[in-house]
Amino acid sequence: MRPKHAPRVIDQGSVWILVAVPSIWAGHFLLSYWIAAIWCAKLPAGASLAEIRWVIAGLGALSIAAIAGLGVIAVRRYGGEFLVFEEITESSERGRDRFIGHVTLLLCGLSVMAVLFTVIPGLVIGQC
Amino acid sequence: MLPLVLTGCAGRHNWLASAGAEAQAVEDLFWVLILGAAVIWSLVIGLAIYAHQTSAPRKEPQARRFIVWGGAALPTLVVGGLLIWGMVILRDITAKEGDLTVRVDGERWWWRVIYDGPDGPFTTANEIRLPQGQTTLFRLTADDVIHSFWVPALGGKMDMIPGRETSLTLTPLEQGNWGGICAEYCGGAHALMRFDTIVMPPDDFRTWLAAEAAPAEIAADDPGWQVFLDEGCGACHTLRGTEAQGPVGPDLTHMASRERLGAGIYAMTPENLSRWITDTDRMKPEVDMPAYPHLSGAELEALVTFLMSLE
């Protein structure tokens, strides 16, 4: 299936999807870090993280949903696939789109793992 | 080379001694890590040698599949599993509960130790006694720079940070005198900032705690006590129950009952104590305590006899 309406490479800003996925990961990491740091700094030593861990987990769920949404766009608009047995070497509009879709999907996988690795300590460690 | 390296794996600082529940938890993780790493390393190197030597035709799809599963999926699972396991251990050894609470304050270069005694908290120094089989919660602070509290054979370690309180639990399982050290470089005599951790049966511990909480027993006409007062020792050191209430240096109320002198570095003998008083900076470079080389032989002997009587 030839994807439709895929923006052309740099001049129409199509690479944003590559940047957006790891940016969600970075944003989730920073927000989690800031929230926990401010929470723990404002409360006495050894305070509980119980209230905050669900905020971090909720942010994690939102981040993963957003990453999944971008993954869907990568598949639908760019024709992205998890390519294991094939290389994308075609020098054409379609080849470039497929390449961006493919890389976006890989970044989605990496970013979901990274967000999960940020959420896990929040769920396991119960105190500041 | 190997025997030199392995000398670190024995004795009272051995973190593989399994003398405490927390050390055992870390040791279990260590063995799984090291054995797992050995298996994976052998597999990878074996495959590399095989790939180099074999003349079998290359099958590209197989190789790619191997990279996806062996190079991406498996490491993610292994690292994720180890992360969770390590987190659970960290959570358990920093738990905020214990049968007993001991506060330890890191100073350059010694340890102020505060127990909850039968009649309220009291201070001692440089030697920690713990009841076997019970969990002790340590509440850790620092007075000047960052130190780190570590009894390798029992568990830990944990940073001691000025202005903050950190916590650590130790559940010693084996009796003995286990070495404790400062594990964060804190200045000149960092390597000489040590302590003894003596694990005893719970009944003996209670007896010791009551004795340690008691004030010093001093005869007012003891000539050594007079030297102690005349030289101003009480400005820095406390002898509970007397006018000596200095908070700067280690509490000396029962100093002779400790096994070591100078924060866990010299045997508690009259000879070492005598040298400590006259050559303090040589015994422990950069130590805050001034030396007292001007004491006459008789004064020094009286002072040492007096201090060695503080049991």
TrEMBL record, chain A:
The question of whether Transmembrane helix is a record keyword is answered with yes
Give the stretches traversing the membrane.
Answer: 15-40, 52-79, 99-125
Keywords of this protein's UniProt record, alphabetized?
Membrane, Transmembrane, Transmembrane helix
Q: Which domain of life is it from?
A: Bacteria
Its recorded name reads: Uncharacterized protein
State the species of origin.
Answer: Salipiger marinus
TrEMBL record, chain B:
Membrane topology type? Multi-pass membrane protein
Q: Where in the cell is it found?
A: Membrane
Q: Which PANTHER family does the annotation name?
A: CYTOCHROME C OXIDASE SUBUNIT 2, CYTOCHROME C OXIDASE, SUBUNIT II
Task performed by this protein: Subunits I and II form the functional core of the enzyme complex. Electrons originating in cytochrome c are transferred via heme a and Cu(A) to the binuclear center formed by heme a3 and Cu(B).
- Catalytic activity line of the entry: 4 Fe(II)-[cytochrome c] + O2 + 8 H(+)(in) = 4 Fe(III)-[cytochrome c] + 2 H2O + 4 H(+)(out)
Q: Which GO terms describe its molecular function?
A: copper ion binding; cytochrome-c oxidase activity; heme binding; oxidoreductase activity
Give yes or no: UniProt keyword Transmembrane.
Answer: yes
Q: Tell me which species this is from.
A: Salipiger marinus
Please give the family membership noted in the entry. Answer: Belongs to the cytochrome c oxidase subunit 2 family.
Instruction: Write out the transmembrane intervals.
Output: 29-50, 66-90
Q: Per its UniProt record, what InterPro entries does this chain match?
A: CcO_II, CcO_II-like_C, Copper_CuA, Cupredoxin, Cyt_c-like_dom, Cyt_c-like_dom_sf, Cyt_c_oxidase_su2
Q: Which GO terms describe its cellular component?
A: membrane
Q: Name one GO biological process term.
A: ATP synthesis coupled electron transport
| Record lineage | Bacteria, Pseudomonadati, Pseudomonadota, Alphaproteobacteria, Rhodobacterales
* Cytochrome c domain segment(s): 219-311
Whether Iron counts among this entry's keywords is yes
Q: Which UniProt keywords apply?
A: Copper, Electron transport, Heme, Iron, Membrane, Metal-binding, Respiratory chain, Transmembrane, Transmembrane helix, Transport
What positions does the domain Cytochrome oxidase subunit II copper A binding occupy? 97-211
Name of the protein this chain belongs to: Cytochrome aa3 subunit 2
